[in-house]
Amino acid sequence: MPPAIQSFLDPASETISYVLSDGRHAAIIDSVQDFDAASGQIATRSADRIIDFVQTQGLEVQWILETHAHTDHLSAASYLKHRLGGQIAIGENIRQVQAIFKKLYNLDPDFLANGRPFDHLLQDGERFQVGSLTVTALLVPGHTPADMAFRVEDVVFVGDTLFMPDVGTARTDFPGGSAHALYRSIHQILSLPGSVRLMHCHDYPPPGRAHQWESTVAMQRSDNIHVHDGVTEAQFVAMRQARDATLPAPRLILPALQVNIRAGQLPPAEGNGVSYLKIPLNTLHFPGSPVTST
User: Fold this and answer.
1) How far apart are CA 123 and CA 96, in angstroms?
2) Distance CA 13, CA 209 (A)
3) Fewer CB within 10 A of the terminal residue: the chain, N end or C end?
4) What residue ranges in the chain does DSSP mark as E strands?
5) pLDDT tens digits for 124-141?
6) What is the DSSP string of 85-97?
7) Cis amide prior to 117 (ω within 30 degrees)
8) pLDDT by residue (tens digit) across 13-68?
């Protein structure tokens, strides 16, 4: 039986979450926790849509997967685990990302940057089961050092590595990012047969186009505006670095990462019972941001 895939678009962050299943067992990929930065309010509307679907279909959740530690939304992984069970998994290089942002946020010594609280750290090429489906984890660094893609039969969930062909590719200016690594990761994916379906984690459509989140290897090789056939690594790196230098900071990078390196858990509550998100000042620098330090 081919894999069943149900997608869920979160319009606020333009994130697409997925439920992958064999009809009985399921994996949830790249979930979203609703967050209003102005008020500090967190809600679970997006995750509850997934819960409703899983329960209506009678699915048993075995895995809650993250392609990487996202900068544009807060993960709902821990909430979904609490409600549905399953193991939270991410690429093993998350430890590098945790170490970088432990220093940035000046986190307590109790935060060890050892992969916890994720339940399982995936290695490149590792295979695992979603019921009768065999999923292969693929290390695709570049956007971050910890990015993973997930292949099941003729489908690959590519995370932020590739966008729709008319949007292009992910930025590489985050700590630990690399345009060279991203080019090689993309070509690892584009070396697959042309009919392989690619499921994207985000879509930022140009004016006049509705959100889309599925392409193919052939479409990307023919039409991707950044990395179609014939674009060399040197050309791609020059384009990507020049483009990244114009981009502002992602809107939620500082709130999101301190949650997402904890598998979607909020920072520990302080003495008054309230959790706080820290915003380090004058630490991350993005040349395209409207306000920059001198």
Assistant:
1) 14
2) 17
3) C
4) 4-10, 15-21, 25-29, 34-36, 41-43, 60-65, 87-91, 120-122, 127-130, 133-139, 148-152, 155-159, 197-200, 214-216
5) 999 999 999 999 999 999
6) --EEEEETTHHHH
7) yes
8) 999 999 999 999 999 999 999 999 999 999 999 999 999 999 999 999 999 999 99
